[in-house]
Write a structure and sequence with these properties.
Length: about 550
């Protein structure tokens, strides 16, 4: 029997999901049922009866309950008031549970239907959480398709306009969000892409030239999909990418509105006629079109550069993270439904995470990271030396490799920085260059790296005994220098020449009986070329700009 006294209705059919609130309510009674109501009786509420809507006797009981009865039931066999209440509670709970089960399935199917997925093949992984670090590529595309001419070229297919590599540590205690400037000159690898008919076509890559191609061309140009951008990031950084999420202009508007606006603070006014942004100094809550104007602006910034805009976008994303974590969004069914609906409509993801259940698991992993341990930074770059008017940038290899090594080795940017020069393996006397003897092995994957290093050591540094050992037995993730105890002075000298961190030195525990033997230098994946320092995976590069997500200070 249902709550209306009818026994021919499945209770689950009476409850419907209200998309405006994210909660469940009783379906309104059909007109013919209302017509069958007995005249003179009050219309029943679709909610649990309050005291004011109960019959007079029940109202009195609710208003002034007496002492509990010790009787098991009425003499006439009718249940006591307490038992009536228990029966009502049990029936209502059963009805709610049934409704949630049915409604939850419908919501699941609804959200699944919202998602757009792309099969990126082997560009990503099947890792959807659990053990191990996670590398998620967040791509903001500047596609104008379907948006008319509100934002410029209506036919633009969109490029990788904003790209952030979001690294979550294996223990989910911290995360590093590294922005990749769109105007980096870098190579773009060959890219197999899946067509609508199921066939696969390989889009040819482009080797890096003096001024082209730019990183943002890894998406859109020639039909390149987000998998091509994932491959370009791995080529550029040496960091494997597990998954991608892509958003467009409309997504920024929808998500900022779904969270109830994003709070930002400005130390000076931001006015940009091109993006139509007009914000005074001070604190603002922005959403929708205004939020899009904020993340798109360049001309309102001091240098009007993409690097300035990256810092502004990082501030916006930090504020959004704080809003989601602090506003009860994750515990309010209504807010959560609205956010989930907007997010699934806004996102394009790879097929490995292209379902609500997998995205939910991913979201749980990300939500475990406290905002104070989420650090935003930018891939280190310098102006392109091959241009008179600097329109592009190139990677600052020495500093960038240090940052890449930290991410590859799952080292937090929010931790304490090690003081340089304090590693005991680097402190002490150094041998003369002519006395250094070393065999160089290539485990870097860079063709000719061992031969080139030997030539550089002999010709530039004056090392007396470098020898080419050929290829290492297997690829090496890191560059290492193994030496006997009696060769510590040689090891320190070679480390100073090559820029090796103390963590790269591997002293043996054997007796000092290595008279005349060579040290063993194995070049790893962190090797760029001779003369470029090897990154210390435990320390960030000098002058690296970092911003924690819990930082709410004003920006200019």
């Amino acid at each position: 029997m249902d709550t209306q006294g009818r026994d021919d209705i499945d209770p689950a059919d009476q409850w419907v999901l209200d998309p405006a609130t994210g909660t469940y309510r009783l379906r309104e009674r059909p007109a013919q049922d209302r017509a069958r109501k007995q005249p003179g009786l009050p219309r029943q509420s679709s909610h649990v009866p309050a005291a004011a809507s109960l019959p007079p006797r029940s109202r009195r009981t609710a208003a002034a309950p007496g002492p509990p009865s010790r009787r098991r039931g009425k003499p006439d066999g009718r249940p006591s008031r307490r038992r009536k209440a228990l029966l009502w509670t049990a029936g209502a709970m059963g009805l709610v549970l049934t409704a949630v089960g049915v409604g939850g399935y419908l919501a699941y199917e609804h959200f699944n239907g919202n998602l757009t997925t792309v099969d990126v093949g082997d560009a990503g992984s099947k890792n959807v959480g659990g053990n191990g670090p996670l590398n998620l590529l967040v791509i903001g595309t500047d596609s104008r398709q379907g948006l008319g001419r509100r934002y410029g070229d209506a036919d633009s297919v969109g490029h990788a306009d904003t790209t952030i590599l979001f690294h979550v540590s294996a223990d989910r205690s911290n995360a590093t969000a590294m922005s990749i400037p769109r105007d980096i000159v870098t190579g773009i690898p060959d890219c197999p892409t899946r067509r609508k008919d199921g066939s696969t076509t390989t889009i040819p890559g482009i080797p890096a030239g003096l001024t082209t191609p730019r990183f943002n061309e890894s998406l859109g140009v020639g039909g390149r999909d987000p998998g091509c951008t994932m491959r370009a990031v791995t080529l550029l950084t040496g960091i494997p990418v597990d998954h991608f999420m892509m958003v467009d202009f409309e997504a920024v508007k929808a998500l900022s509105t779904a969270v109830g606006g994003v709070d930002v603070c400005l130390s000076r006014p931001l006015v940009d006629p091109k993006s139509h942004l007009n914000l005074s100094a001070g604190r603002h809550r922005i959403e929708g079109e205004q939020a899009l104007e904020f993340v798109r602006t360049r001309h309102a910034l001091r240098n009007q550069s993409d690097l300035d805009r990256i810092r502004l976008q990082q501030n916006f994303l930090s504020a959004m993270i704080r809003k989601i974590k602090s506003s009860g969004t994750l515990t309010s069914p209504g807010k959560l439904f609205t956010l989930a609906d907007a997010a699934t409509r806004a996102l394009t993801v790879d097929s490995a995470i292209g379902s609500v259940s997998r995205l939910t698991g991913l979201a749980k992993d990300l939500s475990r990271v406290d905002a104070k341990h989420i650090t935003f930074t930018t891939l280190p770059v310098v102006d392109n030396p091959n241009e008179r008017v600097h329109a592009t940038v190139v990677v600052d290899r020495a500093r960038a490799e240090q940052l890449f090594a930290m991410i590859r080795n799952d080292v937090s940017l929010s931790g304490r920085r090690k003081q340089p020069g304090t590693d005991p393996r680097l402190v002490g006397p150094r041998a003369a260059a002519s006395d250094v003897r070393v065999q160089v092995y290539n485990g870097s994957g860079v063709s000719g790296a061992a031969r080139g290093t030997v030539d550089w050591l002999r010709g530039v540094q004056g090392v007396g005994g470098p020898a080419n050992g050929g290829n290492a037995p297997s690829p090496a993730p890191r560059t290492t220098l193994a030496y006997a105890p009696g060769q510590a002075d040689q090891a320190r000298a070679l480390a100073a020449m090559l820029g090796l961190p103390g963590s790269a030195l591997r002293p043996s525990s054997g007796a000092d009986d290595a008279q005349g033997a060579d040290m063993s230098l194995t070049l790893g994946a962190d090797f760029v070329r001779a003369g470029v320092p090897i990154a210390d995976p435990a320390a960030p590069p000098e002058d690296l700009t970092r911003t924690r997500a819990d930082n709410s200070s004003c920006v200019s």
